[in-house]
Amino acid sequence: MSFQQRFKSFPALSRSEVPVRYCVLCALGATVLASGQACAGGMLAYEVGTADVGLASAGYGARAQDASTVFTNPAGMTRLQGTQALASGQLLWANTRYSIGTGTSPLLGNDNGGYAVGSGGWFPGGGAFFSYSVSPDLKLGFALAGNFGAPLKYDNDWAGRYYVQSTTMLGVSLLPSIAFKVNDRLSLGAGLNAMYGMYTNQVAINNVAPIFGDGRLKLDDRTWGWGANLGLLYEIDEGTRIGLTWNSQVNLDFKGPAKFSNLSPRVATALDSAGLLNSTIKVGIKVPQQVMASVFTQLDPQWALLGSVGWQQWSKFGAINIGVEDSSHPVSLTTDIPFKDTWHVATGAQYRLSEPWLLNFGVAYDSGFQPDGSTVSPLMPLNSAWRFGLGGQQQLSKTAVWGLAAEYIYGGTLKTDLQSSAPVALGGRGNLIGSYDNTGTLVMSVYGNWKF
Questions:
Q1: What was the pLDDT predicted at 41?
Q2: How confident is the model at residue 118 (pLDDT cuts 50, 70, 90)?
Q3: Which of 72, 272, 325, 369 is deepest in the core (most CB within 10 A)?
Q4: For residue 28, is pLDDT > 80?
Q5: From CA 246, how far away is CA 72, in angstroms rounded?
Q6: How far apart are CA 155 and CA 285, in angstroms?
Q7: Is 114 in a helix, a strand, or coil?
Q8: 3-class DSSP state of 81
Q9: Strands 138-153 and 122-135
C-alpha cells in the first residue's frame, strides 16, 4: 500500500477529525497580542496551554478538534465523539525590564526594578476541559482556566515605586456549557462564565523626610464576576467550517480599606485631613466583551488553513492606578488610566507530517489598548503585540493525543513618560521617563486529550 493510500485510511486524517493544536494571556497578550504578559489585545490571554499556542490562536473558534473547544467555542462540542477530557499546562517567561532614561527625577534612584512580570520573569498557566455526550446532538461541558491578567512585581526601591511596586490582577473562569446540533450544518452553544477575581496593588508613599524612608499603601480584595459565552459553528462542507463567538463583559468590583504603613507623622496628618487615611478604595474592573470570527478549511489530507479576526472592548476596562500624587497635599488615592478598543487577526496552518504526527504553525497580531501608541503605564507594561507559534501533536491511540507547543509574543519597545505635579523633594511621585526595550514572552505548553 502506498503512503498516500495508508494516509487516507487513517481515521485521524478524515476531514472532520484532524487533530489540532490550539493557543493568550493574556493573554495577552492576552493575548492577545498582547502583552508583555502573554495576553490578548489587552490582558486577556489566548494561551491556556492548549494546541492553540502553536497556532498563535488562528482558527480559535472554528477548530473544534478537542475538548478545549468548551472554552474557545462551546458550539464546537457537537463535533466531538463521546466523552472527552483535556488537561494542559504551560510555563511562560517574560522579558520585561525597565531602562531608566534621561529626564527621570534623580532622587528616584537608579534601580530599574528587575524583571517586572512574574517571579524573575517566570509564571505558570494552564487549564482543564471536559465534554460529555448526552446524545450525538446534545453535549455538556465544563472548563477551568485562567486567561485574564498576570502578576507584576518590581523591586521595592525601584525608580517607579511611587507609581507601583507590585500588583496582581487575575481572573480564573469556571465555565459550565451546553451545545446543541440544530442540523447537519449548524450548531449552537452557550456557557456561563463564573470568574473569580484576585486583586492586589502595592505602591510606595513619598514621606518627604528621608529619615522615615518610604511609606506604603496596599489594597487587597477578592470577588466574583459573571458573564456569558455564546457560540455558533456552521459547517459549509465536510472540510470547511466557520465559528462565531461572543463573550460578554464581566464586572469585577474590587474594594477594600486603604492599608497604609510606615507613614511619617506629617504625611499621616495630611492624609487624615483630606479624609483619605481611613478611606475605602474602589477599583471597578470590567473584563471586556469580545467578538471573534474564525475559519477552518481542510485543503487536502495533509494541509489545513485556519484564520481568525476579533474585537475587544477595552475602552470600558476602567482600571485605576492607586497611589498619592503629592503626599504634602493629597487629594485622591486613585488615578484613572484610559484605554481603547483593540482588534485581532491571526492566520495559521496544520500539516500532517505522518500518520501519528500533526504540525501546527501560526502568526497573529493584536492592536494596542493603551491610547498613546508606544507609551505605557508601568502598571501595565504591554500594548500591541505579534505572536509566532509552532507546535506538534502525536496520536498515541484512537483515544489519546498528546502535544507540545511554543509561542513567542513580541511587544516591541514600550516607553514611559510620567510627569509629576510636584518634585520628589516636596512629596511628589517624580518624573519617570524610560522604556521597556524589546519586550517579549516565551510560552511553552504541553497537553493531553482523552476520549472515553
A1: 55
A2: confident
A3: 369
A4: no
A5: 10
A6: 25
A7: coil
A8: coil
A9: antiparallel
Nearest to 252 by CA among 203, 291, 289, 198: 198
225 vs 197: CA distance, rounded Å: 7
Other beta carbons less than 10 A from residue 373's beta carbon: 11
Query: For 294-309, what is each residue's pLDDT tens digit?
Result: 999 999 999 999 999 9
Name the pairing type of β-strands 186-205 and 303-312.
Answer: unpaired
How far apart (Å, rounded) are the C-alpha atoms in residues 164 and 170? 17
Give percent of the chain above pLDDT 90: 83
Cβ burial, residue 262 (10 Å; 0-12/13-18/19+):
middle
Q: Which residues lie closer than 8 Å to 83 by C-beta, 6 or more apart?
A: 130, 131, 132, 133, 451, 452
The dihedral of CA 398, 297, 236, 72: what is its sign?
A: positive
Secondary structure element (H or E) that encloses residue 308, with its range = strand 303-312
Query: Would you say 276 and 330 are in contact if contact means Cβ atoms under 8 Å apart?
Result: yes
Q: Which three cell numbers stand for residue 372?
A: 498613546
Tell me the helix, strand and coil percentages in the chain, rounded to 5: 10, 55, 35
Domain range list for the chain: 3-451
- At a CB cut-off of 8 Å and minimum separation 6, what does 349 contact? 58, 303, 304, 305, 306, 360, 361, 362
How many whole angstroms separate alpha carbon 17 and alpha carbon 438?
A: 40
Could you tell me how far CA 397 lies from the centroid of its own chain?
A: 33
CATH architecture, domain 3-451? Beta Barrel (2.40)
Q: Which of 91, 163, 249, 50 is nearest to 430 (CA)?
A: 163
Alpha carbons 451 and 75: distance in angstroms, whole number: 18
> Mean pLDDT throughout 180-185?
97
Distance separating alpha carbons of residues 378 and 404, to the nearest angstrom: 33
Q: Considering only CA atoms, which of 285, 216, 278, 280 is closest in space to residue 252?
A: 285
Please give the Cα distance from 319 to 160 (Å, whole number): 18
Whole-number mean pLDDT of the chain? 90
Residues 6+ positions from 306 with CB-CB distance below 8 Å: 55, 58, 59, 62, 63, 294, 295, 296, 297, 346, 347, 348, 349, 350, 362
Residue 300: which residues within 8 A CB-CB, separation 6 or more? none
pTM for the full predicted model:
0.88
Q: Are 71 and 64 in contact (CB under 8 A)?
A: no
